[in-house]
C-alpha cells in the first residue's frame, strides 16, 4: 500500500472518530434552593439550563433576581423537566 494511501486512511479514520462524539447529555436541569435560612430542605425553583443557573442573579444573562448564592442553590441535569417536581 503506498504511503499516500496509508496517510489518507489514517486521516479519514481520525475524522470519523472525531465526528462521532458522545451525546453531551441533558441540556436542561432542575434548580433547587433553600427557601429560608436554616431550612435544610431544598425546594424546586425552576427548570433551566446550566448557563442560566450560572448567571446567578444576572437577569440579562438568564439568571433570576432572587438568586442569593451558589451555596443555597443547586442545579442538577435532567433529560425531562417534568422530573423536577
Sequence-ordered SSE layout with sheet pairings:
Blueprint: H1 3-19, E1 28-33, E2 43-49, H2 50-54, E3 73-78
Antiparallel strand pairs: 1-2, 1-3
Query: Which regions contain 5 or more consecutive residues with pLDDT less than 50?
Result: none
Shape: elongated
What fraction, in percent, of the residue positions are helical?
25-40%
Order of helices and strands: HEEHE
Secondary-structure content class:
alpha+beta
Biggest sheet record: 3 strands, antiparallel
N- to C-terminal distance: 61 Å
Count of DSSP-assigned helices: 2
State the total count of DSSP E strands: 3
Give me the oligomer status.
Answer: single chain
- Taken as a percent bin, the fraction of beta residues is 15-25%
Structural domain tally:
1
- Calculate Rg over CA atoms: 22 Å
For the largest beta sheet, what order do the strands appear in spatially? 2-1-3
How would you state the average pLDDT, rounded? 81
Would you write up a description of this structure?
This protein has 85 residues and is an alpha+beta fold. It has one domain. 26% of the residues lie in helices and 22% in strands. It has 2 helices and 3 strands, in the order H-E-E-H-E. Strands 2-1-3 form a 3-stranded antiparallel sheet. The longest helix has 17 residues, at 3-19. The N and C termini lie far apart (61 Å). The mean pLDDT is 81.
